Amino acid sequence: MTGQGGGGFLEDVLIAGGLLLVQCTIAGYLVFMGHLLALGANPLAVIVVVNAATSAFFLPFAVALERKKWPSKISLTLMAQFVFIALGGTLGFQELVLLGIKKTTPAIASAMPNLGPGVIFIIAACLRLEKFDRACKYTQAKVLGTLVCLVGAMALSFLQNPSSSFSPASDPNNTEPGSYYDWILGCSYLFAGVIVFALYTVLQAAALVSFPAPLTMCTVTSAMGAVFTAILQVILEGKMDMGSPRIDAMLIAGIVVIGGVVAGACLVFQTWCLGKKGPLFVSVFGPVQTVCSAILSAALLGKTVSLGSLAGMALLFSGLYIVLWAKNKERPRGDHLEGENAADVEKALLS
Fold this sequence. Notes:
The chain is mainly α and 351 residues long. The chain is built from 13 helices and no strands.
């Protein structure tokens, strides 16, 4: 919108700069998580601490800033959406990502989510939230971009030499025969995480139509996710435990601050940017996180990425930008959807 003049330009600059900072911050968070997991931290316990801290920190802000946006009555449909967002976005996605980091590297873990726009396109097309016209060149471009992303993800998974990704200090028990299996398993976890991410993103976009309070939604679903994860850990292990005596009070404080507050603030800022600029603009900055993760994990943890996986990343990023370019050219239209609400979901999800 050019009518806003200098104010609009300044906002654009601040949003772009903020998103760059967010991607670098999340990269540091993933490297920190990789260090914790190498020390033997239990992923479920980490998820509980991170999301409990996020919910506790942002609850006052949600009440102060969004209380007027809360509906007078919470419907069963909205409550069910919150539950599934918490199960998918908090428990499912975060657990899969942490398991993936544990068996690969933070750089690979940050690269895989760039599959998200392509996978979201497939899911949204199946749900008729996304225009799919085989004769349209933009639809063809989105299909091509999605295929390139998938090829890049496969190259990322299979062309890496796992032994080059683990430093002796971080994984002294690593052996060559099992490392390749662990690597593929880790990439499978990350790919499954992308699928879960795409599903809960579609659901989140639908929920925001009837509940336009993203900060409150993040706060509530984080709290619910922490409770669900704690219950799961108690069921599976019989107790709440961080998993290793090396996870001391200082590291737990780091999880609270870095994971709960800093990474939570990044999530809230990204959610705000989604409302201002749309998911496509936010997605453009995804590769920055991968580059920062690769640099930090190499410098701090001694983990490297092979040339084959770098080629896979290049393909993945190329496919991502093809999908984003095609979606930017093809403006969402609600005339092929049934009802105004469906058009609102498409706008929230893919505009």
